[in-house]
Design a protein that fits this description.
This protein is of the alpha/beta class. It is built from 15 helices and eleven strands.
Length: 375
Amino acid sequence: MNNFLYIDDNTRDEADGLIVGLSDEKLSIEFRNPTGNWENERIKFLSEEFRKYDGLLLDLNLEEKKNPESGTISYYKGSTLAQELRNLSKSKEMSEIPIFLLSANKNLDKYFDETNKDLFDLIISKESLSGSDAFKTYTRKLIAIAEAYKFLSGSKDVNSILNSETDNEDVRFISEMEYQVRTKPLHSISNFFIKEILQKNGILICENLLFSRLGIDLDASAEEHVATLKDKILIKIKYEGIFSSGWERWWMSKLEKLWNEISENRTLRSLDAQERVEILNKRFNLDLKASKKDGKAKSSKFWTFCKGTGTYIDNIDGLLVIGQEKIYPWQDKEYICFEEALQPTNKEIWKDIIESEKIKLEMLKRKFPNERPSR
């Protein structure tokens, strides 16, 4: 059981929906208001009682309501408490635990300083907790992070942390992993792993990229055949190291190895979607359907997906998005498809394309003159 503390200036009754929604048989959440006094807050964190907690949930804006017992306002924010906790753990006055920011979007927009984001293992907007599936998703992540902290406290061996032999992985990735786990505090390792390995494709890949590279149309394929592929075949290449209970990922190197075994060394990258699916169907007696390229694409040798729409594309049929100037060498670059570039539907996700791709976009506009951005 993982025991979390949740600090919010709302009343216990007002917070009850979030507490009940995030709690399960592996996660219990206790609640209290901020004390209204900075020194009292610090004393509580250093107390014996606080040591029982495996994680901390903090509201961002703790200054809206008075503490119902003391009648005082807490003139500090959740990010201030998080910074103090990280300082206390750095000075060895307390053990490190994961810290999660749980706040309304309006407060994140108004009060949150982006320079503080690395203080938190996860930032959750209260609005995103809009249904039982969302609660379950975040509960899994909270538990996975708490369990990862415990594991990392006792092991610095990369193979054990990843629960896999790493002889076939990029040596630059292994070198960075070893550097992180041997020299960084737990919250820095957690941030690195979540942001640079789980949230970015490369060494590990997400489900959408997995099926893009296998060329499978999930909507057209029978659910039972997709389930057979995932649960009985691709289970062999699934990532099962730290954080895996919160993020479903697969090893790219193991996918390529598996593919070479079943395809008589016809490389995955060299085949189009139809050829890939035919090999899977023949080898495993399945009835999967191949994805089709959209009308503006040239290739069905899918290798990535559109960051805006999720559409499978070959890299040659995409435009590179901004914000990838300092990616690690083992990470995949991110693209949007031509359709999304010409008629943006989710530009708030991908923001813009890199400057050198804008000439290519102008050529696309001339090629498809009737396409106009949706309004």
